[in-house]
Design goal:
This protein is α/β, with parallel strands linked by helices and 619 residues long. The chain has three domains: 342 residues, Up-down Bundle (ABC transporter transmembrane region fold), CATH 1.20.1560; 167 residues, 3-Layer(aba) Sandwich (Rossmann fold), CATH 3.40.50.300; 76 residues, P-loop containing nucleotide triphosphate hydrolases (Rossmann fold). 63% of the residues lie in helices and 9% in strands. It is elongated. Pfam families: ABC_tran.
């Protein structure tokens, strides 16, 4: 399937809303509402209780408000001089005013509580999400299902707070509708039937219109994804140079016009269908409302209710219709938000399967490296026919510099990642000083290993922070930072930045700076040197460096020989000639082993690759 045809995270809830009938929404709402209450209760019990009590209180006040309104009308429509009728209505007016004050206060209370509750819910949800994403083993990101779940769950905080907010608003609307119904029961039970007759058609029309919107949204998903891609291509810093180099402006604008014409036609069709649905609902509802007025007229003509009750009924019907319209919107809102929350919960369940195994007894910290044994290690990526690493075994002694060489895809980086503890082998064992990795404390073991990656992440922090994060367990030492930068030939480069080591390395922020690929590679190498680990793994550390920086880097690596242990991965074979042992990998298997001289004399794959590079330089 093409990438643009894959369902995006923002389409999950709307697709399910489009597929489910109205009965399905009502069937799932109690579970979603219960989950929202549980989440809110865990985030802040006091605010959750305030929202619930204030909402119920406001609904109760609505009932008393309608009854008090009727009392006022009874007095005003009674017999006698106008001043006497007004004076008789004053007590009921005072009660009505008091009810209005209480309802206003309760509304403010709900607003205050929700304002404080929503960020707490969002924070708790997002924190739990990031605990999962940062805690799972690296192989989790190799599984398509995990990546898809993570993409859909990434808006966890927003979705959870929306679910809580929608549930609170939906509860308020429901309580208001119930309050009106209760008031009508006190006035005349027939009026409650009239309310249903007058309100049901418009409510159904609103639900139907919502269904049409969601269905059209899903049907337009491919166009929407293409628009998302086009927007990024036309208004993104990274695409801007190539857009201008190849004069792609006209091409991209033409693509935009084609997609938008098709989308506009769909939206116009949707507008017509919604207009027809709403019109039918309004006509039927109007007929129902006319029947209400006929019923009221009959009740008045036969003296079954007083005029005051009839007027109160009119007010109640209007209030109920407004409340039902709002409730209809909230039902869709809660259901859709709930689908995103369900994706979030599904992701957390899947992430649990990728969390590192919990062990009972406390494991000892790893001691200084004496020897590292790689024993029959095998790793198979999901949905890959061939293994990435296949039955590899060798031993590294402290102070050695070993090199892993081979063509792209030979398994070098995968093997190095397993040595660093970033990946677990499908089978086989890594032994640190004679004990399996699992026998040592994981954090302590990771602290003994430094890794410099070719595909490094450009962290949007200062130059000093980018280097110091190589060992956050130690106190930040500026002298040590500068020493590590000097070893990576990055010190002078950093001093030339506008704010030196305090310069922010990201143009997204004010006064941030961009670095070239080679400059970033120096920063990354300095990060590895800052850790000063027993074992340093350098994966293509010089691919973007200029010759002077590359020479300085490898001089420093050669100085480690006999003192610290180094695993070097590079395609530039001239830089591994000094290694104590060179392991040549091909299709996940170690095919040749020896020193540079031995491998050249062997005349195998290494010798062939070395001659090809040497011939290139000879020209």
């Amino acid at each position: 399937m093409l990438p643009e045809l894959r369902e995006a995270w923002w389409e999950t809830g709307t697709r399910r809303r489009a597929e489910v009938a109205v009965s399905g929404i009502f069937a799932e709402l109690p579970r979603l509402a219960a989950h929202a209450v549980v989440v809110a209760w865990r985030a802040d019990r006091v605010r959750t209780l305030l929202v619930a009590l204030a909402t119920l209180g406001a609904g109760t006040m609505s009932t008393f408000g309608l009854l008090s309104t009727q009392r006022v009308l009874v007095e005003l429509f009674g017999a006698g001089p106008t001043p006497d009728r007004v004076r008789a209505a004053v007590p009921a007016l005072i009660v009505l005013g008091g009810i209005a004050v209480v309802r206003g206060t309760l509304a403010i209370t709900v607003g205050y509580a929700m304002t404080g509750l929503e960020p707490l819910v969002k924070q708790a949800s997002e924190r739990r999400f990031f605990e999962a994403t940062t805690g799972v083993r690296l192989e989790a990101f190799d599984a398509d299902t995990f990546a898809d779940d993570m993409e859909r769950a990434k808006q966890a905080g927003e979705s959870m707070s929306e679910l809580v907010e929608g549930t609170a608003d939906g509860l308020a609307s429901l309580v208001n509708v119930i309050a009106v119904a209760v008031a009508l029961l006190f006035i005349n039970p027939l009026l409650l039937v009239a309310l249903l007759v007058a309100s049901a058609p418009k409510t159904y029309a609103a639900m139907r219109a919502g269904h049409l919107r969601y269905a059209t949204y899903v049907a337009s998903s491919v166009r929407r994804r293409r628009m998302y891609v086009l927007e990024r291509q036309m208004a993104d810093r990274e695409s801007a140079p190539e857009l201008r180099t190849y004069d792609l402006r006209g091409f991209l604008l033409h693509q935009y016009d084609m997609v938008m014409r098709a989308q506009s036609a769909v939206e116009l069709g949707l507008a017509r269908r919604i207009a027809v649905t709403s019109a039918v609902g309004a006509v039927v509802g109007g007929v129902g409302l006319a029947l209400v007025w006929v019923l009221l007229g009959w009740l008045l003509a036969t003296d079954r209710i007083p005029l005051s009750a009839a007027v109160t009924c009119v007010l109640a019907v209007q209030a109920a219709q407004l409340g039902l319209a709002h409730l209809t919107f909230q039902l869709d809102y809660v259901y859709t938000s709930g689908q995103y929350v369900q994706e979030y919960l599904t992701f957390l369940e899947r992430a649990d399967a990728y969390l590192p195994e919990q062990t009972g007894p406390e494991r000892p910290p790893a001691g200084p490296l004496q020897h590292l044994e790689i024993r029959a290690v095998h790793l198979q990526y999901p949905e890959r026919p061939a293994p990435a690493v296949d039955n590899v075994s060798f031993t590294i002694t402290a102070g050695q510099t070993i090199a892993l060489v081979g063509e792209n895809g030979s398994g070098k980086s995968t093997l190095a990642a397993m040595v660093a503890g970033l990946r677990r082998p499908t089978s086989g064992t890594f032994l640190w000083n004679g004990k399996p990795y699992d026998a040592w404390d994981p954090a302590s073991l990771r602290g003994r290993v430094g890794v410099v990656l070719q595909d490094h992440h450009k962290w949007p922090y200062s130059a000093a922070a980018n280097i110091a994060m190589g060992n956050l367990s130690a106190d930040t030492d500026q002298a040590r930072i500068e020493l590590a930068a000097g070893r990576a030939l990055a010190h002078e480069m950093i001093l030339d930045l506008p704010h030196g080591y305090r310069t922010l390395l990201d143009r997204t922020f004010k006064e941030g700076q961009d670095l070239s690929g080679g400059q970033w590679q120096r920063i990354t190498a300095a990060r590895g040197f800052y850790r000063d680990a027993d074992l340093l793994i350098m994966d293509e550390p010089s691919s973007a460096l200029d010759p002077r920086a590359e020479d300085a880097l490898f001089q420093d690596l050669r100085a480690r020989q006999g003192v610290r242990t180094t695993i070097l991965i590079t395609h530039r074979l001239a830089n591994v000639m000094h290694a104590d042992v060179i392991y040549v990998m091909h299709e996940g298997v170690v095919t040749e082993t020896g020193t540079h001289t031995q491998l050249i004399e062997l005349g195998g794959r290494y010798a062939e690759l070395f001659r090809l590079q040497a011939a290139g330089y000879g020209k």
